Amino acid sequence: MKSKTLAKLKDYLPLYLMMIPGLAYLIINNYIPMFGIVVAFKKFNVVDGIYRSPWNGLKNFEYLFTSNDAGTIIRNTMLYNVAFIIVNNVVGIILAIMICDVLHDSLKKLYQSSILLPFLVSIVVVSYIVFALLSHENGMFNAILKASGKDPAQWYNDTTWWPLILIVVNCWKGVGYGTLIYIAAIAGIDNSFYEAAELDGASKLQQITHITLPCIVPSIITLMIMSVGRIFYSDFGLFYQVPQNSGSLYSVTNTIDTYVYRALIASGGIGRSSAAGVLQSVVGFVLVVSVNALVRKISKENAIF
Amino acid sequence: MVLSKGSRIYQIIINIVLLLVTLFMILPLVLLFMSSVTDENTLIVNGYSFFPAKFSLDAYRYIMTNSATVFRAYGITILVTAVGTTLSIIMVTLMAFPLSLRDLPGRNVLSFLVFFTMLFNGGLVPTYILWSSTIGIKNTIWAYILPNFLMSAFNVILVRTYFQSSIPYDLYEAAKIDGANYPTIYWRVVLPLGKPIIVTIGLFTGLTYWNDWTNGLYYITSSSMLSIQSLLNKMIQDIQALSALSTADSGSLMNIPQVSIRMAIAFVAILPILIIYPFLQKYFASGIMLGAVKG
Q: E strands within A11-123?
């Protein structure tokens, strides 16, 4: 018996060896930094490093919350995520339904490819394109405003339009992802449903609300869990690059991720930076686990784990 | 197929809407290109436009002849993408194959170790301190490759699921009876049969490396180590980043078409993606759909 186990282990040994590079990477890149969150409870200095720096209790968190920043970044992060989830899913579903109904295969392919294209463009390049539109001196929007006799706007100093701008840019860049998933879901619907509905004289709209939408609910839920679980995270590039890190826009563009970075590079900011980071990790973790638990309760097959 | 009047109208409407959406998706990239071939003075006087009054290839000419910085940055991006993607594929598949074997002792614990990294992380500060101070990769090529992107847990789970569902277990048994050990099976059976999923994750990993600017932001301070995205990031506020290293005429900023050259470099940065996209479109699409199916 014992020699058999031993032989089996010898057989398996190469498999464990294969995993060493991957496991080592996870330990360095993921697990050691997890223990590093203690830095949020320390008065960090570079000389002593994380483990020898003196403890600081909850001072970093106090500092974070007594400034106005905590409220702003949490509000911005969550509200933008809610807006992104709603806009991208609604637009994605509408586009997917339309694309699936297109009869010409070549047109269908054209639409599908062009919708995904912005997804592949780096956010730095996106910020260049947005700059071409919004630049104060020679942006296209200001040229149009001037040509129609209106005053040019100071886009990068004026917070008014930024929530809309960010929602549009995010939709432009990201809607293709959801659209493709919904196209796959719609393509999987049994065609006989539609044939029967047509025989019964159901209108296009009725077919959509009674067949298409109910059939893609699992996909909608899966995408929703993933995005709600990440509601405490934001796309650093979108909020840092696209507004060009403009200080006068912080009230509407500062999110947890941009705050963590800016505090980290500010002198003496490492305490509040790590406090905000820990807050994000912990709340983010609780959110993913609880959203998933909730979904498990309602419909087990849609849960992610 | 004969269409009723109602569905003909529906077809016309959705095609018009989708054509408008297509324009909305593509026009920003067209604007980027047009700005890069607009004459510098026209840009300054008339602003960015789809229909510039005067064309000029000065920006591209400048890049071709004068800018060692751009070439070097491009080279770094290509190197990082190639090395990063290759290493990533090796590590992901080496991790995913053992985890795909149902009878591997400790499989659940190990899978959980991988999965847990998707739920919880230490955040930027400890990660930054570890990579930059403890390991010391600042201003090396590894700063672009190692942090964050080398092995994504998501890809491991995706690949593991694919191996499990698409490679029949009997094949392993048969190979073992023929005297093959696990490394041989990995090399001769798993990699060839796993090609579709390997191409897919390779494509997305490559895209991540090509487009990433964050590792450059965190870990690169030396201007001779900038990748193309990091160079673009630096140039947003500071055109000096470009002239700092331009070998031919350093110091004479006057000669650089400052506005159009940024657009030209940005366009050059996405050009490879625009070129390969039509050929690899289906892999991108299938990769996204795979990702939506839970692992």
A: none
* Inter-residue long-range contacts of A286-293, CB under 8 Å, 24+ positions, other chains counted: A287/A228, A287/A229, A287/A231, A287/A232, A288/A229, A288/A230, A288/B119, A289/B119, A291/A225, A291/A228, A291/A229, A292/A225, A292/A229
Q: Counting every residue, how long is chain A?
A: 305
| Rounded distance between C-alpha atoms, residue A261 and residue A253, angstroms | 13
Determine, yes or no, domain membership for B160.
yes
Q: Is there a contact between A202 and B7 (Cβ–Cβ < 8 Å)?
A: no
Name the token pair of A39.
């830095």
Q: How confident is the model at residue B250 (pLDDT cuts 50, 70, 90)?
A: very low
Residue B207 lies in a domain: yes
Assess contact for B273 and B204: CB atoms under 8 A.
Answer: no
| Interface residue B18 vs chain A (CB under 8 A) | yes
Q: Any idea what the CATH number is for the domain that residue B130 is in?
A: 1.10.3720.10
Domain extent, residue B117, equals 67-256
pLDDT at B295: 37
Q: For B88-104, write each residue's pLDDT tens digit.
A: 999 999 999 999 998 89
CATH code that applies to domain A39-302 = 1.10.3720.10
Convert the pLDDT of each residue in B43-58 to its tens digit.
Answer: 888 889 899 888 999 8
The domain locations on chain A are 39-302
CB contact under 8 A, B151 and A26: yes
Q: Does A299 touch chain B (CB under 8 A)?
A: no
pLDDT for B252 beyond 60: no
How far is it, in rounded angstroms, from Cα B98 to Cα B105?
10
Q: How many CB pairs under 8 A join A and B?
A: 273
Question: Does residue A11 belong to the interface with chain B, where contact is any CB pair within 8 Å?
Answer: yes
Over residues A240-250, the pLDDT tens digits come to 999 998 889 99
Percent of the residues in chain A that have a pLDDT greater than 90, as a whole number:
64
Tell me which residue of B208, B193, B211, B185 sits closest to B270, measured CA to CA. B211
| B 59-78 residues with CB < 8 A to A | none
pLDDT of residue A291: 86
Residue A204 CA, chain-centre distance (Å), reads 33
Buried b / exposed e across B72-87, counting CB within 10 Å, b at 16+?
A: bbbebbeebbeebbeb
Task: Please give, rounded to a whole number of angstroms, the shortest distance from the CA of B250 to a CA of chain A.
Answer: 24
Residue of A nearest to B289 (CA): A181
Q: Does the pTM exceed 0.90?
A: yes
Cβ neighbours around B251 below 10 Å, total:
9
pLDDT, residue B283, reads: 87
Query: Is B211 contained in some domain?
Result: yes
Nearest CA in chain A to B107: A16
**A105: amino acid identity, one letter:** D
Residue A263, token pair as written in the block = 């505090």
> In this structure, are residues A133 and A222 in contact, taking their beta carbons and an 8 Å threshold?
no
Q: Which amino acid is at B233?
A: N
What total number of domains does chain B contain? 1
HSE-CB at A116 with a 13 A cutoff on CA atoms is: 28
B150 touches chain A (CB under 8 A): yes
Distance CA B251, CA B59 (A): 17
B292 is a domain residue = no
Residues from chain A that touch B120, judged by Cβ atoms under 8 A, are: 34, 281, 284-285
Q: Is there a contact between A19 and B98 if contact means CB atoms under 8 Å apart?
A: yes
